[in-house]
Amino acid sequence: MRAAELTRRLRHLAAVCIAVLAAALAGAGAAQAAATIVIVNQNAPGEGFNDPTPAAPVGGNTGTTLGAQRLIAFQRAANIWGATLDSSVTIRIGASFVPLSCTASGAVLGAAGAYEIWTDFENAPRPNTWYPAALASKLAGEDLTAPEDPHIIAVFNSRLGLFPDCLPGSPFYLGLDNRPNGQIDLVTVLLHEMAHGLGFQTFTDDGTGEQFFGLPSIWDYFLVNNRSNMPWVAMTDEQRRISAITWRGLSWNGPNVTAAVPRVLAPRSNLDISGANAGAATGDYYVGDASFGPPVSAAPVSGQLMPVVDQPNGAGLACTPLNAGNALAVRNNIALVDRGSCDFVTKARNVQAAGAIGMLVVDNVPGDVIGLSGTDPSIRIPSLRITLSDGVGIKAALQQRSRTKSGVIASFGIDRTQLAGTDRQRRILMYTPSIHSPGSTVSHYTTEARPNQLMEPSINSDLRHVVKPPRDLSFPLLRDIGW
Hints:
The protein is of the alpha/beta class. The chain folds into three domains: 2-198, no CATH class; 218-261 and 422-481, no CATH class; 267-419, Glucose Oxidase, domain 1. Helices cover 21% and strands 18% of the residues. It has ten helices and 20 strands. It has helices spanning 7-16, 66-84, 133-140, 186-198, 237-243, 255-264, 324-330, 344-353, 388-397, 474-481, and strands at 2-3, 37-41, 91-98, 110-114, 117-118, 131-132, 152-157, 172-173, 184-185, 223-225, 230-231, 250-252, 267-274, 283-285, 288-289, 301-307, 334-338, 358-362, 383-386, 409-419. The strands form five sheets. It has an eight-stranded mixed sheet with strand order 14-13-20-16-17-18-19-15, with helices on both faces. The protein has a four-stranded mixed sheet with strand order 2-3-7-4. A three-stranded antiparallel sheet has the order 1-5-6. α2 packs across α4 (186-198) and α6 (255-264) runs antiparallel to α10.
């Protein structure tokens, strides 16, 4: 049985948009490895991969036009996956650079996924179960799709960073050296999106819990409610819907991922609040790690927690150098700042310059634990992030304070009893924010993983061009579903 086009899934993919998928140029060659990945150019002459705009070589990318450099970056990502996978069927990725939604402060980077899904094909490991086209063809031992159709489809933003109304100054970095210097590393984005097309996604609706045509995805057999140990495939639609918005509620129960977790993930970072004035705020907190500055280590960084106050409403953004009063407050202490108005690296740079020994960022919108993005080798202090609700409670304990002391002690350390981003059984958590995020919910790893993983719902600056242990858990999951 075949489901072609999958308009519902493409709507899902249009919402994903942290990155764009790898693609290809017809006749441009293939990744000669354990799997062959062919790139199919779906752009018109003069556009996308065919863009003749002159470009200087960058980061090992020797292309002399914008289109050629895009292709070379895509082929690098294809080569990495091709060397990792095993399939006798050539994998075709159809892609194009096209104008996508943009503003000066935000943009859709792109979207990608399986072009078709299949069930009950020859040699299918599970009956009545959806598999993405590339995987179904591998398992069948023959190409199930029509020769003119791709297995994976992708679109990505041709205007990104190149026009004043589309994230000006932030184009894709087309180098191959994994040194984007604050830009969006295209090869990393492509590796992420390729994984979605290969099967790092469910075809069950993550918002309603409804199975596609009443059948589960192969993904659903390994997704488990870590409170009840009930797999997604055994739940009702309503149970799936609720589990998808239960923070830390779903884990991946596949044997390959679970076996690799202890080799890949580090102990969980922890914030401990104590002290004479801590009151109800006393205790340990889940935190998001920063991709910049030193990581939290076994030797705790501890100090008085002192808020930066530089806004009329009492908030502290630390987006400009701290004034004398705030500098006095945070010197040799841990600075508490609010998210908003500038990037996290700027905040860290400013509180560090004022003498702070650490930075704790309070989110400014409801939600769950997320890390701090950015890069700056000059940052020498550790930084962590907490939720808005946790921040409200901690701020309440800071109301009684002097200019240099709060009586609330913050300690940045690690919890060796738990690996970052795992449940009590050391299974990696999936991304299930309490506020449903279409296209991101369920089909990504948790944002709590440490180190950051390729298949989190955002592209972090510390990612490498790696898809397998001991650095990354992307390939073990694909192995679990049949690769």
